[in-house]
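Lab channel / #folding
Pinned by the channel admin:
"Please post every new chain as: sequence first, then the structure tokens as a reply. Keep commentary short and put observations after the output so the thread stays searchable."

First post following the new format, from NK:
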Amino acid sequence: MRNSVTYQYIKDPQKIEQESFKQIRELTELDGLSTEQQQVVMRIVHSVGIPSIAKQVRCSERACQNALKALAS
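Reply from TO:
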């Protein structure tokens, strides 16, 4: 017996990434984080695939600013 279910997969890598981050935003608690901290947390969640890990991430007050400055230099 053949499976008659067909799936419509997104094949465009940019659209896949956009959909991934849309879902991460919906599933992850990001309140109280700066824009930069939200980006870091979303990348961590994206990497490990576990939205609840966001509750365990801590950033010092200037961590993101210092990291961006270091990357720029």
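NK: The chain is about 55% helix and 0% strand.
TO: also worth noting, The helical segments are 13-27, 35-48, 63-72.
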